[in-house]
Specification:
7 helices; elongated; mainly alpha; about 5% strand
Length: about 180
């Protein structure tokens, strides 16, 4: 379609349908990935170590101050005079910054530490639905929603207190914005 042409009524209706399906996918995704609506997190959760590690980074910031270390994630503090600090530079720090903000708002709880990945996983579903729906229509967008919500690997990364789901959401957001 050239820039001077306006969309047909059917294309406009399909765009609205895809938008509504994406909104529904976002709501269902949030319900799927957060313990507020689904089962609470418990000891059988497969990624207890990532929660523990993220918790250590947050606790270290609470102890030494976020600004004191320039926002760099502190992996370990070894007792010495002065303390020896080992920074965590293996991944971009944005996940830890966002998680720190969530723990400041909601307290130092497992739910607060998992809220960023859960929200990003839900957003990833909605963004994927938008990408598929724009290219293939509302039926494909609906099928995408069902498949994505049923995917167990996606559920694991949505619950995991780690950086994967925020990275996926940012990549998908970039693609949606590029195509817009």
């Amino acid at each position: 379609m050239s820039p001077s042409e306006s969309p047909t009524p059917i294309a406009s209706l399909d765009a609205r349908r895809v938008g509504l399906i994406a909104l529904l996918a976002l709501i269902l995704g949030f319900a799927r990935y957060t313990p507020i609506f689904s089962e609470p997190f418990n000891l059988s959760t497969a990624d207890r170590m990532t929660v523990g590690f993220a918790g250590e980074v947050i606790k270290n910031w609470q102890k030494f101050g976020f600004r004191a270390e320039g926002g760099r994630p502190i992996a370990h503090i070894f007792p010495a005079q002065p303390p020896v600090i080992e920074y965590y530079f293996h991944h971009p720090p944005a996940f830890y910054w966002l998680t720190y903000g969530m723990t400041r708002v909601f307290g130092m709880t497992e739910t607060a530490m998992r809220l960023v990945p859960a929200l990003c996983a839900a957003l990833s579903i909605a963004l994927t639905v938008l990408l598929i729906g724009r290219r293939l229509g509302p039926i494909a967008a609906s099928a995408c929603t069902i498949i994505y919500l049923a995917d167990q690997a996606g559920a694991f990364f949505g619950w995991m207190a780690n950086y994967e789901s925020p990275v996926l959401a940012s990549i998908l957001a970039t693609l949606v914005l590029r195509d817009h």
